[in-house]
């Protein structure tokens, strides 16, 4: 180590990095990088790394091994984690917290086509989840949110950014609007603005949610959020927790696929529901919804427009139909002999 470095703990360095990039990156990107770096900071604290000056190439290797072998993260996830860490270390070097060039020691793993085909919510499990909510949490926040996520394939950021006024119960649609000035954005900005049709059954849930259970709060920008807690607009983090909470198999009566004792399972408390290996974040719900639409023979251009995803990205990251399913669906369009 050189004497030019100035002591800085990992947690403070993380916050400095996020503050520095807040005006360069989209809110969703900042949130994603913040989560990845939170995992890194927690690892540093577990390993007793209290000063970034002491962070070395060997530590990079140890962190990579931990994420790959102990946490069993997918290659694509590892690539994102290490890309964020590399940018973070580059920033840390610029403020004399780590040796210059340390970021260059991070080599990103190569991803393949198979890496893009990640986990998704199966339609049968989606039905179990929604049936459970229909019976035990009808028209509650969790029911309304997860019904929308499954039936529309919306990103969680788009869903929590909806206002009551964006829901048209007469014509049965949701209006997706990019509102960066008041704290809610769409991933593709103005290009992501669109009208998304909803079904009779989903409208019934939303109508009852608004009439009976909606807390009637306004958010800090004075807007009327469609999805709200008793205090404010539903946050993305709370939306993710709801997804984790109700995609655990034990919640809707299935036996634990991991042979865990419910009385001792660490993932039983809502605060730890993400610890269940079977629980899913909102994105696999979106992936499952898109695949289900395709399985039901919804034309790709319609899915692309409805879900705000380009055809190329749809093919690479979301379409999880098997080759046999695709062939059988194409066969129906062949002319008769």
TrEMBL record:
Gene3D superfamilies associated with the record: 1.10.150.130, Intergrase catalytic core
CDD domains given in the database record: DNA_BRE_C (cd00397)
Pfam family, one: Phage_int_SAM_1
Residue ranges occupied by any Core-binding (CB) domain in the UniProt entry: 8-93
An annotated Gene Ontology molecular function: DNA binding
Biological process annotations from GO: DNA integration; DNA recombination
Top-level lineage group: Archaea
The Tyr recombinase domain, residue ranges: 116-332
PROSITE patterns: CB (PS51900), TYR_RECOMBINASE (PS51898)
UniProt KW keywords: DNA integration, DNA recombination, DNA-binding
PANTHER family with a match to the protein in the record: INTEGRASE_RECOMBINASE PROTEIN MJ0367-RELATED, PHAGE INTEGRASE-RELATED
Protein name: Tyrosine-type recombinase/integrase
